[in-house]
Structures are given as C-alpha cells and as structure tokens.
Amino acid sequence: AHETLAGPWAAPFLVIYGSLDGDITGVPQTGFAMFDRADDAVRSMVFVYGSIHDRYNTVWGDGDLYFGTLGAQDLPNVITAAAHQEIAKGYMSAFFRQHLRGESQWAGIFRGEWVPAAVSQADPAKLKIYTQYFDTVKTVVEESGGPPWNWQASTIGGAVSSTLPAAPQENMLAALDSHSPHETGGLQLAWTANGQKLQFDIPSANQDVSGYAALSIRVAQKVDSQSNPVGAPQVLYATLHDTSGKARSIRSDKFAEIPAPHKRQYNQYTKSAMRTVRIPLHAYTIEVIGTQRVDLQHVQSLSLDFLGNLSGEVEIDSVELTK
Q1: Sign of the CA dihedral with 32 first, then 258, 23, and 12 last
Q2: Is 270 exposed, middle or buried (0-12, 13-18, 19+ CB in 10 A)?
Q3: How far apart are CA 228 and CA 308, in angstroms?
Q4: What b/e string do you get for 276-301 counting C-beta neighbours within 10 Å, with b at 16 or more?
Q5: CA 286, 292, 298 angle in degrees (round to 5)?
Q6: Could you give the count of Cα atoms lying within 13 Å of 55 in the half-sphere of its Cβ?
Q7: H helices within 172-288, ranges in order?
Q8: N or C, where is the chain less crowded by C-beta within 10 Å?
Q9: DSSP label of 254
C-alpha cells in the first residue's frame, strides 16, 4: 500500500479510480496516494463519479455493490457496467498509444481537455470525470512538500501574500481535512467576500514563462464546508500581472470545473478530491477589447482571486507553469 514510483522505477502511469469504490478506501491505499507519491515521470489520474471497483472487468462481477462501503442511497448513482468498460478501453488505449507508440495527440485526454467520444456517450446522465495530470517539464510556483510549513514562502522563492480573512493553513492535507484522500501537503484557504485573494510573487529569474503552455493548479472543494455552494461547482480567477503593470484574470470554469464532492451515504467516504485545472497561457495574450494583454516574458506575480462566489473553502497544491 506504500509503493512510490520514482527514481529508477519512474515511468508514465495512469490511475483510474471511482468515487463509489467499495474495495479501496483508506488514504494510503487509494489511487490518490499512489499518484501523489510518484515523481520523475508523466502521470495521469482519472477520478470517475459514480464508478465502483468491480465493474472494470467482466470477471469480478458486482461484489462491491453489496459487500463494500456503499449504502442503499449510493446504488442509484452507480454508472452502468458498459460505461465502466468504455472508460477502461478509452483511457487505457489512449494512454498506451501515447506512451508506447509516441502518438502525442492523445495527451489532451489526460490534461482534461477532452473525453473520448465513446466514454462521453456512456451513461451521460450520471458520468462525470475529473483528471489530475503532472508533466516533468515545468516551473513549480508552489508545491507543499513537507515541514517546515510556511505558507508565506513559496517553492519558487517568491513572497506569498493574502487578503483572506484568515491565514491559509499549510500541512499534510489529510491532517487538515479528514475527508482528503491525498498523501501530500497543501494549502487550505477560505474567503468570505468577492475580491479576496492569495498572491505568489515570481522572482526575476523565473519571470519569462513564454516557453510554457499552461498554468496548472490542483484544487478541491473541502467536504462539508458551509462556505461552498451546496452541490455546485466552485470558481476562482487566476490572474497574471506583468512588470509593466498589466494584468488579466481568467475564470477557472472556462477550462475546468472545480466540482462539488460526490456525496456518499456514509459520509466518511466522501472525498475532498483535487483535480487539475489547466489554463492555457495564450488566454492571457489574446487581443480583447477592454482587457489588458499580459507580457509572458515578464510575469511578476500570479494571484488566485476569489470573485466567482461570495464565499468558499478549497484546498490547493501544485501551482505550476507547465508544458
């Protein structure tokens, strides 16, 4: 339960895990922990709302529907066996074609940019898929790697400031939130009014980000937080500021949903599961009337501005500029 794919064992890998999995539930044992502990290779994770463990092949049957952690209220939310098989075939085929055949056109599936057609048509009323993605070519702005915990000092070496009503908390996510499935550190933060923000300053040596494709952030709504909209997505704005004073803000939901947690009948199994939000950097440079075009060769700071909902509570990690 404590495998770490790093160093000489590092290789690209894919995790597929279901929000209603009745077999694998503890923090050290789920696909989240394996994903979090890995390093040194491209890795992807697909978290499927409504998915269980045993339907990913035709041998195990539906045992975890009846002998696992599901309650009667969970059963109507389980996606069909056919949908499980389309997910397995679609994502596994794309993964092997990308990494064994070198077919780069499949990478967008794992970055959350699109879903295989057969998957999107399988049980569409219930099926929702949220991805995590790590590349190896990147500049890390903030990665909560471990103690000493100090939210005001970022990985990239710039200052971190906040106008939030309470200071962000930084620690292992499972220590901050009993519903977190993650075996990694992170920041937990809450806002109470539009316009509050968390800002990362970018040192001068790292201000040219023009060679990267996207701003990438892992983020989750905190389970049972009264600050989040009930059963609805959360929204943040990612703002880049350049050295000439120009800035542009991009809404996260233009590119990826920060979903409400998938509630379980037995609430201890509901997960504050992070997903990766990737915002293309070209979105900051498109000519748009009434907005400023940011110079990607001279980015001075990145701020997360909370303008979408009047309040919220989220957990974030892995703030990166990446390919």
Answers
A1: negative
A2: middle
A3: 11
A4: bbbbbbebbeeeeeeebebbbebbbb
A5: 85
A6: 22
A7: 173-176
A8: N
A9: G
List C-alpha distances in Å: 313 to 126, 128, 165, 227, 317. Answer: 25, 22, 12, 6, 14
Q: Look up residue 298 and give its amino acid.
A: H
- pLDDT(7) > 80: yes
How many angstroms separate the Cα of 57 from the Cα of each of 31, 96, 115, 173, 211? Answer: 17, 18, 20, 32, 42
- Is-contact 48 127, C-beta < 8 A? yes
pLDDT digits (tens, 9 = 90+) for 18-27: 999 988 777 6
Number of Cβ atoms within 10 Å of the Cβ of 75: 13
User: Nearest CA to 222 among 184, 187, 257?
Assistant: 187
How far is 244 from 263, CA to CA, in rounded Å? 46
Cα distances (angstroms) measured from residue 105 to each of 30, 42, 96, 109: 29, 15, 12, 9
Q: Please compute the mean of the pLDDT values over residues 215-229 and round it to a whole number.
A: 97
Q: How far apart are the C-alpha atoms of 293 and 23, rounded to whole Å?
A: 50
Q: Is the dihedral of CA 140, 144, 147, 148 positive or negative?
A: positive
Q: Which two tokens stand for residue 5?
A: 């794919």
- Residue 6: the pLDDT is 81
In whole angstroms, how far apart are CA 286 and each of 123, 128, 209, 236, 296?
37, 30, 16, 20, 12
Single pTM value for the model = 0.94
Residue 237 corresponds to which tokens in the numbers above? 């704005």
Residue ranges of E strands in the chain: 13-18, 43-49, 128-134, 138-142, 160-162, 169-172, 185-191, 196-201, 214-221, 237-242, 247-251, 275-280, 299-306, 312-322
AA identity, residue 182 = H
Cα radius of gyration (the chain): 20
Strand partners, 132: 45
